[in-house]
# Entry
Amino acid sequence: MNDQKELISELESGVLTQPMDFGTKEYEDFKLLIRSKVSETPKKERIKISLLGLKYHMQDYLRSNVNNKGVGSFIKQFIELVEIKQIDFANYLELRPSNLSKLLSGERRLNIELALILEKLSNIDADLWLRVQNHNELLTAQKSLRKKMNKYKLAELIK
# Structure
């Protein structure tokens, strides 16, 4: 145990100031430092940090130009991060659990009111929640309507 405390003290004093490779002892020591700090962090703070990570994940997803995650999967991550059961979350929002389930699976769209509630709870802008949904819908439409869209040309319109 003392060895672990000494290692953490050494790591905190700036030993890890250079880039490191995955799988090295230095990397494993760094993971140990992070775990020790996380275990000391109060639950509320851990959740706030995790929600900030979720926000960055959503922003990165929007820049990625892929359509493999619906807004429901990000809501599901939110529910997991705040450590609540889906049924309890549905009840808190005064939604039927089946409606929440349909939202999470992508069968239902996120509405503006729920986006605003998510903003209030997560500190992630309602606009970001809605942009994820719109991003997916736009990419899907672009793929399915590509041939149809080719017939529209400005040059033909303004002859």
The radius of gyration is 22 Å. The chain has two domains: 2-40, 43-147. The mean pLDDT is 86. The longest helix spans residues 43-64.
